[in-house]
Prior knowledge:
By secondary structure, the protein is α/β, with parallel strands linked by helices. The protein has two domains: 1-47; 53-289, TIM Barrel. It is 46% helix and 16% strand. The protein has ten helices and twelve strands. The chain is globular and about 45 Å long.
Amino acid sequence: xxxxxxxxxxxxxxxxxxxVIWQVDYASKSKAQVQIPQVATAAxxxxxxxxxxxxxxQAEIQVPPENENPQExxxxxxxxxxxxxxxxxxxxxxxxxTVDPEKFEAQLSWLKSQGYQTLTLTQLNQVFFxxxxxxxxxxxxxxxxxxxxxxxxxxxxxxxxxxSAVIFVITDMRDGWYxxxxxxxxxxxxxxxxxxxxxxxxxxxxxxxxxxxAQLRNSKEVLQKELGIKSLFLSYxxxxxxxxxxxxxxxxxxxxxxxxxxGSIVRSQRIFEIPRLRVNRDTYIEGLLQ
Length: 290
């Protein structure tokens, strides 16, 4: 009997020990099984929102470093004003700044036949940061002031030749001689970049601090309100600027500015002094670009 009791006690102890070992092993495995899906779930829910549209692109761009990794890009930027038939009572300045629609179409056709591809200033900025490849033959078409004929005559031709452009708008001047907000919205929706030509087209280099701030800030705010866009580039009225104007433009969130200085080399370290090539009534762009 004693030997049977010993055997029974041994078997009971063995069973208890095995049960404890099994529970520990099961708990360990269960814990691991629970943790693995948690990690996988956390990783699977971490998604990146696709970047779409020019507003999303603008949110990422920035001013190229002034003193780090300076870059130079050969990008001709053409400067237009009016595109349309010349009024019989046009003054000398307006006459000189007006390009006939047939001539403008001939220019676009020539650019297309020569392999030129249009960019916006936002896209040019992306090139500096290796977010976009510079075309073999880039060109940027800009229009100062935002005249009504830009919508009536230039815009249909730009669509016809599938080209983009940049229009610099004077936000306080929206009467019949200028494009309406509805027209600007339509052009913006079609890929035309709308940027600032200040609030009222005054000589920025002659303004005091408060007046200068108002011209640059108000223009951005109105464009944001009316078009839902962030104006990131500036065209100096009459090409007038100085170091104070550049400093204030930076403070107001602009990323660069175009001038009336002639040239076709865009330098990252002088991004607020971008040169352009003026197109007047009798200009042949073939000569400008060759």
